[in-house]
């Protein structure tokens, strides 16, 4: 034990170097806490800090006002009849798939879906069929293919899929398919639609009913300015009793949520940042305009181009940079040169070793910061131009 105590001393002084830099990581841009959330962190940082006045049901806690948030404000925000807080978007997806499907059932996903969607289906034992994308360079999802695939599934299995999922947007290219059209197609076949809004709910306007989605999930730590892990899950009154059904033995506990979900700082920061999130959504058009400006500036580097549907409709974007890839072949640090050069200029968020392709986000960055980032990429290109000869 004494040895373990000694070895563990390093954990007492953990600091986050990235906090000092312009961070382009799409995973983190939408999760930056609001000032209001930062002010109350210390008061709620201990374990089960929201449970002081809990009678056994997390979403009915009145102090702090979890009940008001979960049963009134959150459904209105999501455009659903009912909502819950989860431990993340993936937990929400699993809850939906598990509540609707049995082992051997078929579900239909877009091929750009996040790996956690596939893992959730695998955990249930459901078979996944995918709607193809258009491949390089747009990787676009054609909404009409949902109808084709539903017909194929019916022909092969004699049953329609139990559930369809649309990733909105996908986490690689930032493509926003027409969710309303997909919803219309699915409902025409009486197929339920789950919208994965991990990169949209909290960043941009999303209303499940207007988009014809039966279920929607979001990520607090990716897109709602909250400490993670935390997510949101909403549904219509039609599926509320199925998704949020109670335990036979423990009458007030909801089975799919394992009784309770987030019980501390994540849900508190989610609530504290909520007014901030509502305000920033109003500026979504400006965020898209900033992302387009950045991509246009990056295109000044020869060969550089954004992948995915263009002009982009989202802050998350995937960029092809063949010049940096060619430099990496001759640079002594190989593929790690770009990350190191960016860091030296006060920029982080590009994964170490990536030079040919990488994704990034400009969400909530000021124009000065966006210009600094764009200039940094160009400076690096010019610095090593001789390696391209």
Q: How would you write the strand order of the largest sheet?
A: 2-8-7-6-5-3-4
Weakly predicted, low-confidence segments: none
Number of helices: 17
Strand content: 5-15%
CA-based shape: globular
Distance between the termini: 59 Å
| Major sheet details | 7 strands, mixed
Number of domains: 2
Overall pLDDT score: 95
- How is the CATH topology of the largest domain named? Aspartate Aminotransferase, domain 2
- Named at the architecture level, the CATH assignment of the largest domain is 3-Layer(aba) Sandwich
How many runs of DSSP E, i.e. beta strands?
A: 12
Structural class: alpha/beta
Helix share, percent: 25-40%
Radius of gyration: 22 Å
SSE order: HEHHHHEHEHEHEHEEHEHHHHEEHHEEH
CATH superfamily label of the largest domain: Type I PLP-dependent aspartate aminotransferase-like (Major domain)
CATH class descriptor of the largest domain: Alpha Beta
Question: What can you tell me about this protein's structure?
Answer:
By secondary structure, the chain is an alpha/beta fold. The protein has 17 helices and twelve strands. The protein folds into two domains: 13-30 and 283-384, Aspartate Aminotransferase, domain 1, CATH 3.90.1150.10; 35-279, Aspartate Aminotransferase, domain 2, CATH 3.40.640. The strands form three sheets. The protein has a seven-stranded mixed sheet with strand order 2-8-7-6-5-3-4, with helices on both faces. Strands 9-10-12 form a three-stranded antiparallel sheet. Helix 14 packs parallel to helix 17. 45% of the residues are buried.
